[in-house]
Design goal:
about 180 residues; alpha+beta; 5-stranded antiparallel sheet; about 55% helix; globular
Length: about 180
């Protein structure tokens, strides 16, 4: 209970510090992957949905991370400030890359918190791919390799679809009138 974040159900900062300390001196095996995930626009989510709604959005993201990971053995951390860290063992870079793609799809096709975009960043590092054998170096590498992503608000997606449909209809109409 003292080592679990009450909002997400993931390990908290204290548990994460203990995890890092217990693995500091170890030489990591191949197949240890670190994924980082951070909601960049948490302040905007708080503004749109209120503080409780913003916390709900963090809990929602934690649920999506759990869903994307599935049955894969993982140590999941909520480190505060809308930042998540996941360590997997006995897996590979490609598997976790697929998890990241699935997570992006889940965010893009969400049915909750649709009034605003989700801006987020994800990073990834693996022991054998990156030649890293220390836990803190693996974390640092994952954080330094982060990329930015945006899952659009539903209204923005609808507007884009409407514009595309209008453009397609206009092009078809012009083609028919020129025939």
């Amino acid at each position: 209970l003292f080592f679990t974040d009450h909002l997400t159900g993931f390990a908290n900062r204290i548990a994460f510090d203990n995890y890092l300390k217990s693995n500091d001196r170890k030489i990591l095996d191949d197949g240890i992957v670190c994924m980082t995930f951070r909601v960049v626009n948490q302040a905007q989510l708080n503004e749109t949905y209120g503080r409780d709604g913003g916390d709900g959005a963090i809990k929602f993201v934690a649920g999506l991370i759990k869903e994307a990971i599935g049955s894969l053995e993982a140590f999941c951390v909520y480190n505060g400030n809308a930042q998540f860290i996941v360590f997997t063992s006995r897996t590979d870079y490609i598997t976790v890359e697929h998890i990241m793609k699935r997570l992006s799809l889940l965010l893009e096709n969400r049915e909750k918190y649709t009034e605003t975009a989700f801006e987020y960043e994800m990073g990834l590092a693996e022991t054998s791919v990156n030649g890293i054998r220390k836990i803190r170096a693996l974390l640092t590498k994952a954080m330094s390799k982060k990329k930015q992503y945006t899952a659009q608000a539903v209204s923005e997606k609808t507007d884009d679809r409407t514009e595309t449909a209008l453009e397609t209809g206009k092009a078809a109409s012009e083609k028919a009138s020129n025939a």
